[in-house]
Amino acid sequence: MNRAAILWRVASILVAGSFVAAWQLIADLRLVSPVFLPGPDRAWAALVRGFSSGDLAGKLIGTLEHMAYGWLAASIAGIALGALIGSSKVMRAYVAPSLEFLRPLPVSAIIPVAIAMLGLTQGMALFVIAFGAIWPIMLATIHGFAAVEPRLYEVARSLQMSRAAIIGKIALPSALPDILAGMRLSLTVALILSVVCEILAGLDGLGQWVLLSARAFRSADLFAGVILLGATGYVTSIAVSLVEQRLLAWQTAAR
Amino acid sequence: MSVVARLDEARAARRQKTLIAFNAATLRLGGKTIIENLDLQVRPGEFLCIVGASGCGKTTALRLAAGLYRPTSGSVTFDGEPVTAPRREVAIVFQDYGKALLPWRTAAGNISLALEAARVPARERGARIEALLRKVGLPGHAGKYPTEMSGGMQQRLQIARCLAQEPSTLLMDEPFGALDAMTRQGLQDEVLSLTQASQTTVVFVTHDLDEAIYLGDRVIGLLPHPGRIGIELDIDLPRPRDQLATREHPEFLRLRRQLFDFIKATEH
Ligand SMILES: Nc1ncnc2c1ncn2[C@@H]1O[C@H](COP(=O)(O)OP(=O)(O)OP(=O)(O)O)[C@@H](O)[C@H]1O
Ligand SMILES: [Mg+2]
Predict the structure, then answer these.
(1) Do A152 and B147 touch (CB under 8 A)?
(2) What's the pTM value of the predicted model, to 2 decimals?
(3) Domain span holding position B138
(4) Which of A140, A216, B93, B233 holds its CA 20 to 30 A away from the CA of B163?
């Protein structure tokens, strides 16, 4: 790490620190009633208590499960569909307009449909999360497959590579930067929708924890849940970024 | 021996002397005739150079020979069989080496692509890759990505990948067009030594008339709109060629004059 990077890291920690300090100050001065706003000290205590004596760990695992299953399903389906559409000019011409119509549709609009069809079940949650998370992945994959250098396909033809080898060794690696960027975007979508589904369907998870804490005016528990959600988003996103950096090491090799 | 048998034999002998043949090959693309009635025979082991003004159809002719295009009428044959698709024994060296290499694979990985396609067992690949990198003057660069290499090194790498196909024929489209003069001369000599020893047939497209005469056994000049043969020169310069001696040879200067006059007459 060079000096500039260290300075940036120090600066970002300072900003976060002063944010927490300001929060503590506001709580201590009782600018907002403690019923609604606990200080970071109380939120932290609630977090520790939730893990040691409560079932916060179980809720966290519940949310992680919803998120992971939905995200993985979206990734598999999104990459497969995106590859199918993106690698064929004809498919792109036929399907692209429908995608443009479906894409801006807010996912919240299909939640009632999903509930009507699947009930307040895990299946409904999986469907909604996957449906919302598939778009960034699929669109990025379509773009990635459409943008493969045509010269590389000619190289593949002159080597008489099989269709499977062309997809696995040329098209997929070429589209991988786009695909991974799409997967990182949809991670956030999956987390948001996991919480929404847990709140709506009362499924085991942080969404339900937050909702119940709010209803009972346990603001410290509520904040503990919110902090945990933020941390989940942050950590999972960093994990995907690390995988991304590893897989795309060739992109930074020259720079 | 019957007359028929003797005729067959004569035909077989003639066929043997031709590896690639364009027989009245015509290609139309987007309503435009790009190559018209092209008749051209390439002999096995020959180094044939194709020159011509920009846009006269040199690349298109090469792509016909490669099987990347099919003629609209007439035929293109390789070893007596119609060319319908690219084949592994015919390797293509593209001008834009930057686009023809896989940026996510190292030098070794790029060469490995050709070996994988030829189903060379994994444990044999390492040694083959080593040998090929040494052959094209890139020993010790196995772990580098293409973006970490200079233009000349990238083109060497593409040539190494083509050699990994163990081709009987190399089709090269202005392979050194984007390189500086010194690098280009070095690579010219390397290509000559790589192909002359193994009797590899080469069809070499270039803008550079000196390069064509220096390398070739024969030089074809194409006329534009539509592409057809305008001049054909046999190059009887002694081999091995030498960057200084060959280029000062009176015959070299005579051929150079003839080719320049032809090209000038086609450009106005
Ligand atoms: N796919 C295509 N569709 C329509 N016209 C084409 C196509 N490819 C090439 N042409 C045209 O055919 C002609 C010959 O092209 P070609 O690329 O073979 O020329 P070239 O001799 O290789 O030129 P250069 O020296 O610039 O590389 C040009 O006029 C070009 O515009
Ligand atoms: Mg060309």
Answers:
(1) no
(2) 0.86
(3) 44-68+86-266
(4) B233
Cα distances from A165 to residues A58, B102, B164, B251, in angstroms, run 43, 14, 18, 50
Q: Where are the domains of chain A?
A: 1-31, 39-254
pLDDT in tens, A113-130: 999 999 989 999 999 999
Give DSSP secondary structure letters for chain A: --HHHHHHHHHHHHHHHHHHHHHHHHHHTTSS-TTT---HHHHHHHHHHHHHTSSHHHHHHHHHHHHHHHHHHHHHHHHHHHHHHHT-HHHHHHHHHHHHHHTTS-GGGGHHHHHHHH-SSHHHHHHHHHHHHHHHHHHHHHHHHHTS-HHHHHHHHHTT--HHHIIIIIIHHHHHHHHHHHHHHHHHHHHHHHHHHHHHHT-SSHHHHHHHHHHTT-HHHHHHHHHHHHHHHHHHHHHHHHHHHHHTHHHHH--
- What CATH number labels A39-254? 1.10.3720.10
Phi, psi of B220 (to 5 degrees): -110, 130
Regarding an ipTM greater than 0.90, the answer is no
* B93 inside domain: yes
User: Going by CA atoms, what residue is nearest to atom 14 of ligand 1?
Assistant: B57
Closest to B203 measured CA to CA, from B118, B83, B107, B102: B83
- Residues 6 or more apart from B128 whose CB is under 8 A from it? B111, B115, B120, B164
Closest chain A residue to B164, measured at CA: A159
Count up the domains in chain B and report the number: 1
Choose among B18, B13, B21: nearest CA to B77: B21
The answer to whether the CB atoms of A158 and B90 lie below 8 A apart is yes
Reported as a single tens digit per residue, the pLDDT across A41-51 is 898 998 899 88
Q: For residue B59, list chain A residues with Cβ-Cβ distance below 8 A.
A: none
Query: Chain B interface residues facing chain A, Cβ-Cβ under 8 Å?
Result: 66, 68, 85-88, 90-92, 94, 96, 99-100, 102-106, 113-114, 116-118, 145, 147-148, 165
